[in-house]
Specification:
The protein is mostly helical. The chain has two domains: 185 residues, MFS general substrate transporter like domains (Growth Hormone, Chain: A, Up-down Bundle); 234 residues, MFS general substrate transporter like domains (Growth Hormone, Chain: A). It has 17 helices and no strands. The radius of gyration is 22 Å and the shape is globular. The two termini are 13 Å apart. The N terminus and C terminus are likely disordered.
């Protein structure tokens, strides 16, 4: 009893640290994609310039290229991944302060260089944060941790793309960037207080580049990464990409769309992600993914009402919130599975590689959805998106069941695979050690 009681405050501190890290990493990203785009457009920037800002997202999608460096190098004395975070977090804040002195229109090229550096540092911070989370969060808490990650991303976008924009409207460019830098540096004190346990990986036993690709050799992982995830995420993102154009066509003002999409629908996604994290612990990954995916497919089909342009505004709002909420739930399960697959010696690279495939699938889906809609209309794209998501849901058990059973026998009580978290997946199996449990007390 004493051990369990003392473990709970530690667990709460760890989850609070993760929340701070995940919110802060999306502050700058949200500001660039929403706030800076609006600011530059209001000051006469061209659409070509705004398009360059959107291209910064590609850095996030290819962060797996340098993720092995985060796994290879780090301070054993200060904590391997903690040492990365102690450097990256202040550096991001410093770059934002430098940006405060830049004229965003007349010094656009300089702005882009600094913005690219912020995105690069934020992406690397994400690698270190994911690896730290994979190491310190127990299996039974991973759903909650990844719900916090998804919610933190949405909250970071809301604060960076919304709240900081309000500061800009009232006080101007420099105070807005100073505010952003101050919020970014807040988690540093939590990082400093955290004590990361030793990794147990000596420099001589560092994994090679070939070892990083072994994550795909575990049962079901290739089907999960290259079949199920593309179906799910291309379907979702192609439908989501249509929402803003359809709202414009329905007569919504840009201000209303911005407020609703960022604040209201984002808040729904946050709530859905946090709730899903708890449900994953209670009912398991597969069940919740199938449920969330089914809701996602139905919600996407409901967008046909919006495509008709005659729906009541309240009905439209409910449908869009349902689409966002379902995505928050799906993303939480997806990232939980990625954390399960992250091996102790290559946690940063494993999680990042899998997440990068998911990110690129979403990027492709959004571009394809808009392009096809221009030729055949919204309706056909919506139907196709729903079919893709439904296909992903139908195939999910084929890919996910072997993953959750890869390292453990089946529990006779719950009918779900259960794993011993003490098993090191790299040393003992050479593949991920996974667990699935329907027992809410685990562990």
């Amino acid at each position: 009893m004493t051990t369990q009681t003392s473990a709970r405050p530690t667990q709460r501190r760890e989850l609070t640290l993760l929340a701070g890290l995940y919110v802060s990493q999306f502050l700058g990203v949200g500001f660039f994609y929403t706030g800076v785009v609006g600011i530059l457009r209001s000051q006469g920037a061209s659409l070509d310039q705004l398009g360059l800002i959107q291209l910064l997202g590609l850095l996030w999608g290819v962060k797996f290229l340098w993720a092995p460096l985060v796994d290879w190098y780090g301070s054993a004395r200060r904590g391997h991944f903690r040492s990365w975070l102690l450097v990256l977090q202040p550096l991001i804040a410093v770059c934002l302060l430098v940006m405060a002195a830049i004229d965003p229109v007349n010094q656009f090229s300089v702005l882009m260089v600094v913005a690219a550096l912020v995105v690069l540092l934020s992406a690397t911070q994400d690698v270190a944060a994911d690896a730290l989370a994979a190491r310190m969060v127990e299996h039974g808490t991973r759903g909650v941790a990844n719900g916090i990650q998804v919610a933190g991303g949405y909250l970071g976008n809301i604060l960076g793309g919304g709240a900081v924009l309000v500061v800009y409207d009232v006080l101007g460019w420099a105070p807005a960037l100073v505010t952003l830098a101050a919020m970014t540096v807040l988690p540093v004190w939590m990082i400093a207080r955290h004590r990361e346990p030793p990794r147990g990986v000596s420099p001589e036993s560092r994994p090679s580049l070939r070892d990083f690709a072994r994550v795909f050799r575990a049962p079901g992982v290739a089907r999960w990464t290259f079949l199920v995830l593309p179906l799910l995420l291309i379907g979702v993102s192609s439908a989501q990409a249509l929402v803003t154009p359809m709202l414009v066509d329905a007569g919504w003002s840009l201000a209303t769309i911005g407020t609703f999409s960022t604040m209201v629908a984002g808040a729904v996604a946050i709530a859905a992600a946090l709730a899903t994290g708890l449900l994953v612990r209670r009912f398991g990954r597969l069940r919740i993914l199938v449920l969330a995916g089914a809701i996602q497919a139905v919600a996407i089909l409901a967008l046909l009402v919006l495509a008709g342009r005659e729906a009541d505004a309240a009905v439209i709002a409910v449908i869009v919130c349902l689409v966002n909420g379902a995505y928050g739930a799906v993303a939480t399960v997806v990232y939980t599975v990625h954390m399960d697959l992250s091996r102790s010696a290559t946690a940063g690279s494993d999680y990042t590689l899998l997440a990068s495939f998911a990110f690129m699938a979403g990027l492709i889906g959004g571009a394809v959805g808009l392009g096809v809609a221009a030729s055949v209309g919204y309706g056909w794209v919506i139907v196709a998106a729903a079919v893709l998501v439904a296909a992903g849901v139908a195939l999910a058990p084929v890919a996910l069941a072997p993953i959750v059973r890869a390292a453990a026998p089946v529990s006779a009580d719950e009918g779900e695979p259960v794993v011993d978290p003490a098993v090191d997946p790299v040393v003992a199996l050479g593949r991920p050690g996974l667990v699935e449990t329907g027992d809410p007390s685990w562990p």
